[in-house]
Design brief:
CATH architecture of chain A: Orthogonal Bundle
Oligomer: heterodimer
Strand content of chain A: under 5%
CATH architecture of the largest domain in chain B: Orthogonal Bundle
Largest sheet of chain B: none
Number of helices of chain A: 10
Radius of gyration of chain A: 22 Å
Number of domains of chain A: 1
Number of domains of chain B: 2
CATH topology of chain A: MetI-like fold
CATH superfamily of the largest domain in chain B: MetI-like
Number of strands of chain B: 0
Distance between the termini of chain B: 11 Å
Number of strands of chain A: 0
Order of helices and strands of chain B: HHHHHHHHHHHH
CATH class of chain A: Mainly Alpha
CATH superfamily of chain A: MetI-like
């Protein structure tokens, strides 16, 4: 099978960002928080590949550590949201009746709060921090995954082999674990990839607004908000963190589209027509 | 039909009530003393007791919740600690800013998305289609606040055509409009990326149907078929996404107002967080959530009205 272009490009961009984030754990060109005020606003050179910022900190090192933060927030938040949401979706499909109704009405409530608004509310009460960003994004993901997994699980529950398992006396929990979960993995994974992209955007916006990563912990969003005050002095600082965000978000969203195209035959037909 | 309206209407009211409970719970039923948060640890016990009394914090939680909701229904949201004026007054003062930004942003979004989406569908598979889809894919990945900064760099810092931010007030309509150009474009470019994709796929889907081929075969010109036959039938999913996007646009204004220092509700929300003005934060979060819930409800209703097939379906 030919690998679709969007899948290949998306996977390449995601691999690039993940590799940079992992490398930053063991190596960055310079310590990311090392000040060198004498060398502030240095242009790109062999020592500082992309130059330095208003405090002489190396830009490449900061961007690398920020990639790690961004990936960590996205993986944790979407992971938690997906685990809880998929669990609820499986439960709703397995139990049906008022359990299903209650879970779905609660997930409707979740949709009333855009991630940004919920995170703003948490920050107002608990103070700004990266863990609060993770909680907010995770919370917002629960209803999304509950819906996706319930819809997919309900289809699998109607299949003959599930009836056979029930007839053989298998419990609802065991059926959900052994038969339903493996068969709804595809749409859940596609949704995860798309939600990674959303999480990176939300984290960037919150950090830009000062509600995410706190100094000296670098974040693409906060680097941009610092660059905004220096726009007349050092416009180059406003470019690189933004390009990093676009690379990461584009990567995950292309990867998600590509995965959906190859896992959902209905959509492939529409696209090919 | 009316059964569904009633059902949706009840669901809408219940959702609003549930949202208000969540907002109130997060903001109030938390460990800690709000009067200490507001006045700081150097405050005297008498001052804190006086503030608790003024805020009604000594009352039981349930009666405070009821007082807050029934007050909100009458348009009373309490008094801001930071500005010492009724919160309703603060909101009324800043609402026109946010509404004009949201409405102009939505208008530009719809125009851009329809033009680009239809153009892409009409050139399906060609380089024009490819370019528009590239724009759309990029638009989804670009954060609105970064796009705003790039627009400021180009049009305010380099070309000096437009102001980089701030708002001169409504007294000078031309200056006010100039101040709104970049924020509106930043909001709309990002939102229209999504809508253009939906428009394109919806138009493409209708263009494949038999009646379109019949219309073309009977000699009607392409453009006429596109505008008179295809577009009206492709509108249902487009209208749905427009409604859902309005909610996204309203929360988008929170960010954009802070990028451009525009005195709207989003800027007020951030000032209130910085001032620990919890009464104002609570009212604004509730207001934004209520706008989102209302937009979703109106989309549901519009959907039922546009597409008769859904009227028989289970909600």
């Amino acid at each position: 099978m030919r690998v679709p272009f969007n899948l290949a490009l998306g996977a390449a961009l995601v691999a690039l960002v993940l590799a940079v984030a992992l490398v930053s754990l063991v190596w960055t060109p310079h310590p990311h928080a090392a000040l060198d005020v004498a060398n502030k606003f240095a242009p790109p050179s062999a020592v500082h590949w992309l130059g330095t910022d208003q405090l002489g900190r190396d830009l490449v090192s900061q961007l690398m550590v920020a990639a790690r933060n961004s990936m960590a927030v996205a993986v944790l938040a979407v992971g938690i949201g997906c685990a809880l949401g998929t669990g609820l979706g499986l439960l709703a499909a397995a139990r049906g009746g008022w359990t299903e109704e209650a879970i779905m009405r609660l997930s409707d409530l979740g949709f009333a709060f855009p991630a940004l608004l919920f995170a703003i509310m948490l920050a107002a009460v608990f103070g700004p921090s990266l863990p609060n960003v993770v909680i907010a994004i995770a919370f917002i993901n629960i209803p999304t995954f509950a819906r996706v997994s319930r819809a997919a699980a309900n289809q699998v529950w109607r299949r003959d082999y599930v009836w056979a398992a029930r007839a053989a006396g298998m419990g609802r929990f065991a059926i959900s674990r052994d038969h339903i979960l493996p068969n709804i993995a595809a749409p859940v994974i596609v949704q995860m990839t798309i939600e990674f992209a959303v999480a990176i955007l939300v984290e960037a916006a919150l950090s830009y607004l000062g509600l995410g990563a706190q100094p000296p912990n670098p974040s693409w969003g906060r680097m941009l908000s610092e660059a905004q005050t220096l726009m007349y002095l050092a416009p180059q600082l406003a470019i690189w963190p933004g390009l990093c965000i676009v690379t990461a978000v584009l990567g995950f969203s292309l990867l998600g589209d590509g995965l959906r195209d190859i896992t959902d035959p209905r959509l492939t037909r529409v696209r090919a027509a | 039909m009316s059964y569904f309206l009633v059902r949706r209407g009840i669901g809408f009211v219940l959702t609003l009530i549930a949202v208000s409970v969540v907002v109130f719970a997060v903001m109030n039923v938390l460990p800690g003393d709000p009067s200490l948060t507001i006045l700081g640890i150097d405050s005297t016990e008498e001052a804190r007791a006086a503030l608790r009394e003024r805020l009604g914090l000594d009352e039981p939680v349930v009666s405070r919740y009821l007082a807050w909701t029934f007050g909100a229904l009458r348009g009373e949201f309490g008094t801001s600690y930071a500005f010492d004026v009724p919160v309703a007054e603060l909101i009324a003062e800043r609402l026109p800013m946010t509404l004009s930004l949201a409405i102009s942003g939505m208008a530009l979004t719809v125009v851009l998305a329809l033009v680009l989406g239809i153009a892409a569908a009409a050139r399906h598979g060609g380089p024009g289609d490819w370019a528009i889809m590239l724009f759309s894919q990029l638009g989804i990945a670009v954060p609105a606040f970064w796009l705003s900064m790039l627009l400021v760099l180009l049009f305010a810092v380099h070309l000096r055509w437009l102001p980089p931010g701030g708002f001169p007030g409504w007294g000078d309509p031309l200056a006010a409009a100039r101040a709104l150009v970049l924020p509106t474009v930043a909001l709309a470019l990002v939102q229209s990326a999504v809508l253009a994709r939906v428009t394109r796929s919806s138009v493409l889907e209708v263009m494949r149907l038999d009646f379109v081929r019949t219309a073309r075969a009977s000699g009607l010109p392409r453009a006429r078929v596109l505008w008179r036959h295809v577009l009206p039938n492709a509108l249902v999913p487009i209208v749905t996404i427009v409604g859902l996007q309005f909610a996204g646009l309203v929360t988008g204004t929170i960010v954009i107002e802070n990028v451009f220092y525009l005195p709207g509700l989003g800027r007020l929300l951030f000032q209130s967080i910085a001032n620990r003005d919890l009464v104002t934060v609570q009212a604004l979060v509730m207001l934004f959530a209520a706008i989102v819930v209302t937009a979703n409800f109106l989309v549901d209703i519009a959907y039922l009205l546009i597409d008769p097939r859904l009227r028989g379906a289970r909600a």
